[in-house]
Amino acid sequence: MNSHEIDYKITGEGIQLVEIELDPGETVIAEAGAMLYMEDGIFFTAKMGDGTNPRAGLFDKLLAAGSRVITGESLFITHFTNQGYGRKKVAFAAPYPGTIVPLDLKELRGQVVVQKDAFLCAALGTKVSITFSRKLGAGFFGGEGFILQTLQGDGKAFVHAGGTVIERQLNNEILRVDTGCIVGFEPQIEYSIEQSGSLRSMVFGGEGIFLATLRGTGKVWLQSMPIAKLISRLSVFGGNTRKEGGAGLLGKLLEG
Length: 256
Description:
With about 260 residues, this protein is of the alpha+beta class. About 20% of the residues lie in helices and about 45% in strands. The chain has 4 helices and 17 strands. The strands form 3 sheets. Strands 9, 11, 12, 14, 15, 16 and 17 form a 7-stranded antiparallel sheet that branches. Strand 1 (about 5-10) and strand 2 (about 15-20) form a beta hairpin. The protein is globular.
């Protein structure tokens, strides 16, 4: 199924949104709850599946929906279609502070592998499916478990990442990355998990016991602040604040 051709505009810095402009009859698919606003003439419906196989039976739809539940996403994908006259706009917001990354799948050999919660929206015709890490170490220590998402098609797709996004082109190279900081990579890139160094480095180096290793030739996208790390930092900060507040209160009581 050929993807619909859509125009877009990304707005904002800290928490971004992507505005999609649809011609009459064009459709964009998105994660449930991602829509920020839509103009009159655009209608939406929740479906089990991405719409790439309109002849799929109930079993196939349930299988696709079940795979989305495994990745932690909603059971349904929302389809937004311009049923009005003239061009209409619909916008989708990022779920947390970070960067929206536009991907032209036609230029990426029709496929890209992304972390399981990265997908935001895409042109109708984009297949959203799951893929499993082929190596046991990547599954247990990769920061995203065994499961990643695969986006396939020939149109535009949009993924979201935490903090700043860096795009790197590897040319038969090796790149070691903090686990969880990988947004996505082209499928020809080999993804594995390796020890971060000697025993002393692993224990006292502050970089964790394992690092993600990317090998090969192709593009990779990295994020500076994955949401899991952000939550962890905030929880530590909140705990310290509560302790300091308690100590301050206790000191005032003792002084009184």
